[in-house]
Amino acid sequence: MMVGNEKVNFLKGAAILSAAGIFSRFLGLIYRIVVTRLIGAEGVGLYQMAYPIYSILLVVSVSGIPVALAKLISERMALGQKREALRTFRVALGLSFIFGSLLSILLFIGARPLVTFIDLDPRSYYSIIAIAPAILIVSVMAAYRGFFQGLQNMVPTAVSQVLEQIVRMMTMIGLVYFLLPYGIELSAAGAAFAAVTGAIAGLLILLVIYFRYVKSAGLEFEQGEKDGEKLARVVKQISNYAIPISLGALVLPLMNLVDLVFVPHRLQVIGFTVEEATFQYGGLTLALTLVHFPGIITTSLRTSLVPSISSAFTLNDIDTIKRQATRALRFAVLIGLPSSAGLYILAEPLCWLIFDEPFAAVPLHFVAWGVFFIALQQISAGILQGVGKVKVPARNLLIGAGVNAVINYTLTGIPQFGIRGAALGTVMGFATAAFLNLISLRRTVKFCFQLKDMLLKPIFAAGVMAGTVFFSNYGLYYFLQIFLSREVSKTIATIVSVGIGVVIFLITLLITGGLREQDLRALPGFKRLISPLQRLKLLRS
Q1: pTM reported for the whole predicted model
Q2: Is 425 buried (19+), middle (13-18) or exposed (0-12) by CB count in 10 A?
């Protein structure tokens, strides 16, 4: 029956994307570390100034079409309409190419006026024009990813992500090092241009996989565009889903743009120079890099969840929808809570170890709690999109962005808060969006929310973990200094404390019953742990 296949596809797809995402993000941390050490927080600030503008235009071209494509293709495949699925993809691919081309040209031509209008550091102009061509390439690549996601095959997306990041890392480090003698602004532009080379590599591998797939699928599937739905109807269907999703996704880069516009300006209002404000803004972006790292898993869950729930929704399989929604939200809590607690406790040593920029710990102490709310917002939005409520998460996230803007502008301009105000604004913005999503989800899906299992037990486990990590980190640090240097002691203490935190959190969950046998059976590759844990009497049925 379909339920079994749905569960396998959903969880296996999420596991594949999570593994690729973690590896890709690990590579991202490597080049971020190297680049930060080469050009410092000021150079990172110049590089990051291109991203809010680039992200806004990229969202317009990229975000809505792939998600709509995955949803529409999964619905057609559930009904056995293979030819209509292929026609839908080809129409979406054409739309992606058109929008991507126009927006790449727009960003390249309008870079100088944008820098002047937004009052950015003039040196950021070079980073903006360097990254502009990536919009076209990423737009086309995203359409191919959406096609395979609609088939609930996450392997092509995972492969392209990894290859894209490898090429991006190599290009970024090479260009930053080569261009550094010519000025920090050109070196930062080299880092931005790596998005172009990485996207080219990711697209090429997707093209190879796609043409092999179409050939192996047979002539009937390849000839899909000869009949089925008319072009105008397909465009309308894609637009009905893509536009609300794009508007919702547009909110995130708009929040980054709010940070870009408000943070440096408001910091200057309270007495910081342009260079100091850019430095602190760079520290905030470094903190956000760590905050978004755990989101790899929840983003993968959401990506795999949308076509799976859409397929069940098309067949009116309400039980599968409720079961998957409850499980996905529970995993979001189990990922978000310990991640937030760990980043809060280890903010200073992690920023020192990873970026050699201890100042980033200042905003990280506050924005770390955003991990939990981001996880809930992402998963709840994916479920709502899967059941056709694509406008709801967009509206809720827009409200959250408004909350973020008000708090950001107000608190960042108060000397007692400064950069901490921007961090608090981010947390409260995502908290608002997540809370509103959950209210909407409760009304729509009527999933089973068990307060004790879904929230109280994970909170207790995260608290035990946080206390253990705090004492182990400082205890190890001072003990190791007897034998080793300060830097080596801090490095070892931080890495060991992270491992201890993971183990303590899982053991506490097992002891309290927050992690049960059915949870392990649902996770690919974890079934082998059931027997040993049962012998140790750590696992409940």
Answers
A1: 0.75
A2: buried
